[in-house]
Amino acid sequence: MNIIHIGFSFLLLNTLLFAFCDTGYILCLYAVCAIHEAGHLFAARLLGVKIRRIVFTGIGIRITTEKNAASPILRDAAVVLSGPAANLVMCMCLILSGHSGETAALELAAAVYNLLPFYQLDGGTLLDILVTGTVRERMWRRCISAAQLFAAALMLAALVYSIGQSIAVPGILHVWISI
Fold first, then answer.
1. Are the C-beta atoms of residues 91 and 108 closer than 8 Å to each other?
2. How far apart, in whole angstroms, are the C-alpha atoms of residue 32 and residue 12?
3. How many structural domains does the chain have?
4. In angstroms, what CA-CA distances link 19 with 12, 25, 124?
5. pLDDT band of 175, cuts 50, 70, 90
6. What is the pLDDT of residues 55-86, one digit of tens each?
7. pLDDT tens sequence across 134-170
8. Interacting residues of 39 by C-beta distance below 8 A, sequence separation 6+
């Protein structure tokens, strides 16, 4: 059984990246993604979680683990949070070593982005782990939907603001980290 699958959307995204972006930026982005996913894989291995599949898609890399109804919530949460944690640790290492440039900004952005409450991301997966099977699961799912709308509105506002300022969002992060 093949454990690694590469989707068409991943190939399309990479074609567009190489057509419109600087190669150095793309390699930096790949390094950030590799660190993030390595964090998940390291934690899964450390905690004895079996990996069923790794799927590369246009919106990211999805790691599917073997499902077990008796799986401890804290173990699953630790695996989910280990990706953003790896990005934050690398960001801090870069800043402390005097390399607070674009790579540090991308590490921070990857950690924050992946903690958003969308189910395709680590934040949404974590929320799903925490609310599934609870007494008030339906109420919590409504709260998560409201948080998703709020996060989407904030992202749209940041995009409109960055376009209005004629600077890219990664540029904002770079300036913020440099301070």
1. yes
2. 19
3. 1
4. 11, 12, 31
5. very low
6. 988 878 888 888 776 678 899 999 999 999 99
7. 899 899 999 999 999 998 898 888 888 877 665 555 5
8. 82, 83, 84, 85, 86, 87
The two structure tokens encoding residue 101: 């440039």
Entry pTM: 0.79
Residue with tokens 């150095």: 24
- Beta strands 4-6 and 51-57, pairing class: parallel
Report the distance separating Cα 77 and Cα 23, nearest Å. 35
Domain residues for the domain of 11 are 4-178
Q: What is the 3-state secondary structure (H, E, C) of the chain?
A: CCCEEECHHHHHHHHHHHHHCCHHHHHHHHHHHHHHHHHHHHHHHHHCCCEEEEEEECCEEEEEECCCCCCCHHHHHHHHHHHHHHHHHHHHHHHHCCCCCHHHHHHHHHHHHHCCCCCCCHHHHHHHHHHCCCCCHHHHHHHHHHHHHHHHHHHHHHHHHHHHCCCCHHHHHHHHHHC
AA identity, residue 153: A
pLDDT at 107: 93
Q: Which residues are 4's β-sheet partners? A: 54
Interatomic CA distance for residues 122 and 116, integer angstroms: 7
